[in-house]
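Incident log entry.

Two folding requests arrived from the same account within the same minute. Monitoring flagged them as a possible duplicate submission, but the sequences differ. Recording both here for audit purposes.

Request one:
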Amino acid sequence: MSHSITPPRKDLTHAVVDGDGYPLSWHRSAAAAEREIEREYRAFRRRYPADGSRGNATAYLPRSVIQAPADGCYI
């Protein structure tokens, strides 16, 4: 099932999307979007350590960065 995503502003062309393809945040560059993913991952690991001490040894965050045209696109 595809859906349309449209940037909230013309200068925000890079989106961090979840595993279902829905945008979580918008950024001006791919580098900024990657930094957002890294920030979210660090916060996730503080809450759920990878050592399995809280039952999440194999948990991960499915995130991707996509570039969307200013008039939107289908993914």
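Request two (distinct sequence, not a duplicate):
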Amino acid sequence: SGMPIATDSFDTRIPIQVILAEYEAVYRLAEFRLGALDRRIPLIGGVLTGFLSAVPVLPGVSQLLGLLAIPVSLIWLVRTTISHAQSFEDALRAIEAIEVRINNELGDQALSFQSTHPSRRRSVGGRTGSETVSALVAFSSLLLGMSLWMGIGIKTELGWFNSAYSVFIACISAALIRPVWGWRKYRYQAG
């Protein structure tokens, strides 16, 4: 069912080459996650600027829809950012494990950036993940506060809207706290 492999000519470097190929693939994944995290900051600034300028000048129903849609969209933004930070953490830990494995195979410190990095395992997703999630939490709090301020001050024919909007913002806040809490407790589990 095939030709037998000659064990006397087997290249012992193949396992290291396979590990290095995995190392490169995981590094590319880490670069992708890092880029996704870095793109969040300009997005945050754009949304804040757009919200501040657009919602107050929108006509009645559109203003109400904006006051509902913007806070709901924060749930998506926070959850996807946390997902990227956790995936970045997974990639960093996988890179660290590969470095340790290669160093053990070679009996030398050939690769050591992640495995000896001074800030490793201090925060989920490294400094970039931590800073991005922290900035997003601050932005979300500010945006929810501004939404609440605009929502309770809006004049509408719906007499119940102002008090119901306060409950809505409280529910959105609770929906944002859960993923942030889970992110802070997240720990990489090797598969």
